[in-house]
Amino acid sequence: xxxxxxxxxxxxxxxxxxxxxxxxxxxxxxMIAYPTINHDLYISELTILRNQREGFGTKxxxxxxxxxxxxxxxxxxxxxxxxxxxxxxxxxHIFYRKNGFTSDDKKMLKKIDKYIKKGKQxxxxxxxxxxxxxPPDTPPTKPNFLQLLKDLFQ
Length: 154
Prior knowledge:
By secondary structure, this protein is α+β, with helices and mostly antiparallel strands. Helices cover 27% and strands 25% of the residues.
């Protein structure tokens, strides 16, 4: 039996998820995520402590997208993209955008997309905290009017 290179574990009853590199036997990242009253999965922290730019952040986001369904969330995976003390000169906005996240801040999205196209990094001093979210796989359907009437009179 082959042990995976990376394991994500969660102490029972907590919102903290840790990623361990099994080859080095070291914690390489952590994520704090929990369901909200709006049925979103909110990621309050996602930090890669070491081995940055090796795909571990993407693995954590993929895990969050699967966790979303397991926790019964029906909204979006939501986070606030901001510079972290672990990588203060590289705002994560471009990383999240490349992983399918969007934002209601269309001006900021346009700027992020422009920088992606040019292959440049955002300036950490002038990049604001930006609420970003990952849309659910299937958009919510609008209620069928006839079905609502039928349900009402049953």
